[in-house]
Amino acid sequence: MTISFTVQGEPCGKGRPRVYGRHAVTPEKTREYEKLVQQSYISQGGKKLHGCIEMRVTAFYAIPKNTPKWQRPLMTAGLIRPVKVPDWDNVGKIIADALNKVAYDDDAMIVDGMVRKFYSEEPRVEVTMTEADSFPPNVTRAEYFRLR
């Protein structure tokens, strides 16, 4: 099964938690973006995935307003890519964490992932998740031979 959905708006990275004594507090911007990811997933028909998951995240950043006109077509064609924050791993992390208990039981189920960054006139994040062709780690020997 493959599920794709889009999160509208500028891509956001996972913020570092602030530690106060023994308590860690997730930044408000991170919590709000995780809610947006969850709402986007549910509203676009997302279902629960089982087993191993492959995740592809494509982040499209807004073209900066001060960009010369001649560079805009190169940016939208993917010839000039965003070398800017948030880092690619923080974009993937916020998407994977937001979908915990919503799209899958735990983001440890993601066995293959890719995050790519591009420019676009429409900032957004496109996510595609596929149940990988492998058995879940807790499959028994009898189930393995029955499913083959």
Report on the structure:
The protein has 148 residues and is α+β, with helices and mostly antiparallel strands. The chain has one domain: Holliday junction resolvase RusA (60s Ribosomal Protein L30, Chain: A, 2-Layer Sandwich), CATH 3.30.1330.70. The chain is 26% helix and 28% strand. It contains four helices and six strands; from the N terminus they run βββαβααββα. β2 and β3 form a beta hairpin. The longest helix is centred in the first third of the chain and has 16 residues, at 28-43. It is globular. 22% of the residues are buried.
Question: What characteristics describe this protein?
Answer:
single chain, 148 residues, alpha+beta, 60s Ribosomal Protein L30, Chain: A, two-stranded antiparallel sheet, 6 strands, globular
